TrEMBL record:
Lineage: Bacteria, Bacillati, Actinomycetota, Actinomycetes, Pseudonocardiales
Pfam families: HTH_20 (PF12840)
Protein name stated in the entry: Helix-turn-helix transcriptional regulator
TM spans (from-to): none
Taxonomic superkingdom: Bacteria
Length: 115
């Protein structure tokens, strides 16, 4: 597998970030990752096929919202909170608060064995 490309913080655009956050599954992934911990892709549970979840993770990565790290055959993802905050101060906090209030993304959770 080739190394994933992550946009520099200066390359993040409001349109790409908001587009990535326009899907409830992707908002759910961000909610799960908002605790600041790196998670293995296999820990994430969503009511979509694995290939669809992989697509959602790629959209988030391409928008600069998450960072993906590969270790052998495993992939790990983390929220780029500091980078998004540097470019768009307060945006993630507002999105996460609204998602929590409206229960958006609740269907994405950590699977058994995740701590």
């Amino acid at each position: 597998m080739r190394q994933a490309r992550h946009p520099d913080v200066t390359e993040l655009t409001l349109v790409s970030v908001l587009t990535a956050l326009s899907d409830p599954i992707r908002v759910g992934v961000v909610r799960v990752l908002s605790d600041g911990r790196e998670r293995g892709w296999g820990e994430l549970r969503a009511p979509v096929a694995k290939s669809t979840l992989s697509h959602h993770l790629r959209v988030l990565r391409d928008a600069g919202i998450t960072r993906t790290r590969q270790e052998g055959t495993r992939c790990y993802v983390t929220l780029r909170r500091d980078d998004v905050e540097a470019r768009f101060p307060g945006l993630l906090d507002v999105v996460l608060a609204a998602a929590h209030a409206d229960d958006v993304g609740r269907q994405v959770e950590l699977g058994a064995g995740a701590s």
